[in-house]
Amino acid sequence: GTIRLKVARNLVIGTLLNLIDNSIYWLHHQAERNEEGINWEKKIYIGLSENEASVQLVVADNGTGFLIATDNITEPFVSAKPGGMGLGLNIASEIMTSQGGSLTFPSFEECSLPEEFEDGAIILLTFKK
What does residue 125 show for φ and ψ, rounded to 5 degrees? Predict the structure, then answer.
């Protein structure tokens, strides 16, 4: 069935685009570091699930995962990206909070993801129903 949420659609779309943009950047960065001859296909996974209280949207990739600790990665000006301002995940987290939800970094074991995403970045957007 259809899932309806009361959120600022443009803000949530902007958040999702930021996460996908981050994955594209880091997957490209990882591909440049891989030795020639390694057959590695860049992948991004987006999944949707729900329970009685919330809707969860997971965004994952099969890259290196986070290069800095996720416990403070949403703080402003924290970035592993050369020349990065460190505001993307900060703004994404603030948007999720403003919409009554959350942005978290679950472990692979906490998610039902294909095995190829085990070492990559995993972000969970949770929206309250």
Answer: -100, 125
SS3 assignment for 62-98: CCCCCCCCCCCCCCCCCCCCCCCCCCHHHHHHHHHHH
The vertex-88 CA angle with 100 and 117, nearest 5°, equals 85
- d(CA 103, CA 11) in angstroms, rounded, equals 13
Task: Say how far apart CA 107 and CA 67 lie, in whole Å.
Answer: 15
Q: Structure pTM?
A: 0.90
d(CA 56, CA 78) in angstroms, rounded, equals 25
CB 44 within 8 A of CB 60: yes
Tell me: the pLDDT tens digits for 64-97?
899 999 999 999 999 998 888 999 999 999 999 9
Q: Is the pLDDT of residue 1 over 80?
A: no
Helix axes 88-98, 9-33, angle to 10 degrees: 150
